[in-house]
Write a structure and sequence with these properties.
This protein is of the alpha+beta class and 117 residues long. It has helices spanning 27-33, 66-80, 98-107; strands at residues 7-8, 12-13, 41-47, 56-60, 84-87, 90-94, 111-114. It is built from three helices and seven strands, in the order ββαββαββαβ. The strands form two sheets. Strands 5-6-4-3-7 form a five-stranded mixed beta sheet, covered by helices on one side. A two-stranded antiparallel sheet has the order 1-2. The termini are far apart.
Length: 117
């Protein structure tokens, strides 16, 4: 039987990965630092595979921190009038908005290219 500590009366909740108190957890900081830097070019593609037939516009390679990526994702979703998410260093916007996202990224000063077919 595995005995993983998940709560301590002294520190409260414990992170299961780094075994530190939740307030001092280093896992998310290490994951963000491990993200590859890329070449500074945002690649905008359209994907359908593994999404139940739904089309999603995906933006990869943006050289932004997580908070900035969330803010940019919110602007792009509002401009496209659709939902989406920012996860693992990529932006996902529901629907096929590749041309609109490319134009918006270039207006904001990013180097952006269409990727895929």
């Amino acid at each position: 039987m595995s005995t993983r500590l998940v709560y301590s009366t002294d520190a409260g909740r414990i992170c299961p990965d780094c075994r530190q108190p939740q307030a001092q957890c280093r896992c998310k900081a290490l994951a963000a630092a491990a993200r590859p830097a890329g070449d500074g070019i945002a690649r905008v593609s359209r994907e359908r595979q593994g999404r139940g037939g739904k089309t999603v516009t995906v933006v990869r390679g943006l050289p932004l921190a997580d908070a900035e990526l969330q803010a940019l994702g919110k602007q792009l979703r509002a401009a496209c009038g659709s939902g989406g998410t920012a996860r693992d260093g990529t932006l996902e916007i529901q629907g096929d908005h590749r041309e609109r996202v490319l134009a918006l990224l270039q207006q904001q000063g990013f180097k952006a290219r269409a990727a895929g077919g």
